[in-house]
Amino acid sequence: MGMLLLVLVAFCAKAQIIPMPMGVNICGSEFGEDKLPGTLNVDYVYPNISEINYFAKKGFKVITLPFRWERIQRTLGGELDAREVAEIKKFIVNCNDRGLKVILSMHNFGRYKIGAYDYIIGSPQVTRWHYRDVWQKIAETFRMNTNIYGYAIMTEPHDMWNYSWTLSAQEAVNAIREADIRTNIIVGGDNYSCSEEWVEYNDDLKRLKDPFNKIIFDAHCYFDEDHSGRYFAGYANNKTNAYTGINRVKPFINWLKKNNKKGMIGEFGVPAYDSRWLTVMDNFLQFANANGINVNYWAAGPWWSNYQLSIEPTAYGNDKPQMAILQKYISGSSERSSYTINTKNIESDNSSVIPSDKNNTPNKSKTRTSGSGNYAIISAASYKYVVSAGW
Q1: Which domains does the chain have, with CATH numbers?
Q2: Helix (H) or strand (E) holding 263
Q3: Alpha helical stretches, state H, the chain
Q4: Which residues are the active-site residues?
Q5: N or C: lower Cβ tally within 10 Å for the chain?
Q6: What's the whole-model pTM score?
C-alpha cells in the first residue's frame, strides 16, 4: 500500500494539467419523481438561459439534461409528449447558440413507473419493445439537432435481477441506429454505474454492437465509503484519503483500455464543507485528464436547496468552492472563479446533512440501497434471459 501511494504521489506531482472538455449535469427536469408526470415549474423545471450562460462563461463544454421517461412518453408505446419535446428542444437550441453540446440522459434507473410501482425493463409490464420504442422515437425527434453529443440511454440502472441490462441496452442501440447514425450512444452500467465495481457487474457490456462504433461507456465515481455520492458522514468517517478517487476510477479505465472501448465519467462530485474533499477531487481530475477520460460534474440546478454537491451559484451569484478546482481543468472560460480555497480543515457538525431537492426530500437517485417508489415483485424464475455467447 505504501508503494502504491508513493507511485500515485509521484504521478500527481509530475503530471501536466491539460484542459479537458468538462461537462455538468443541470438537474430539475427529472425532479418530482413521486409526482409523475407532474406539473411543469411546480414539480419539475428545465434549465433557463441564465444557468446556461453561467456554465458557458465558466468554460464548460457539455451540459447533461436528465429527463424522466414517464414525462416524455406518458403512455408506454405512445407518442412523445409535445410539450416536453418543445421544452427539451428549446434547451438544446439555447445551448447551441452558446456553443454547448448536450447529452440527453434518461433518468430512470432501469425502470418505468406505472401507478405506485417501478417495473424493471424486460419485465412483462415494461418490455424491451417498450424501451426500444421510446429510444427510436427520441432519436427520430432530436436527430436534426447537431449539438447533441450523445443519448445517455439510462442513468444508473441497478438491481436488474435476471432482466439482463446488456440485452436491454442492445435494444436501445439498435433502435437509435434505425433513426440516427451520427450521434454517440452513452451506455451506463448496472450497479449504479459504479466505476470501482464496473468489471464485476458490467464486463458483458463489451459485447454491445454498434455498426458505427460510437458507443461511449459511462461510469460514475463518488468518493464516500458507500460510493453513493450522498456523503452522509464526515471525511474521516468515510475512510477516504487523497487518492480515493484515483483508486476508484482506475478499474473502469483499465477495462476500457483492455477492451479498446471509449468511456467517460458521467457523474462525480464532492461536498465543500471540508477542503480535503476538494483535494480528493483534484487528484481524481488530474488522473482522469492524464488518461483522456472526459468528466461531467454532478450537479447543478436551481432547486437543489441545501444539496452539498451543488455548484449552482449562490443567490448573489457567487461561485461554490468546487468551481475553483474544476476550472483548473477547463479551457476557454471567459470568467474564472474568484473563490480561494482555504486549505484549513473547515469540517462542521453539519457534515451529515442529507442532500435534498427543493421539497426537502432525499435525493433518491443517490441511494444505493433502494430506488424511487415501490418495487413490483416479479418472479425472477419466470423471466430469465441469457446473453448470447455469439455477440
Answers
A1: 16-382 (3.20.20.80)
A2: strand 262-267
A3: 2-14, 49-57, 69-72, 82-97, 128-142, 165-179, 198-202, 244-259, 275-290, 322-326
A4: 156, 267
A5: N
A6: 0.84
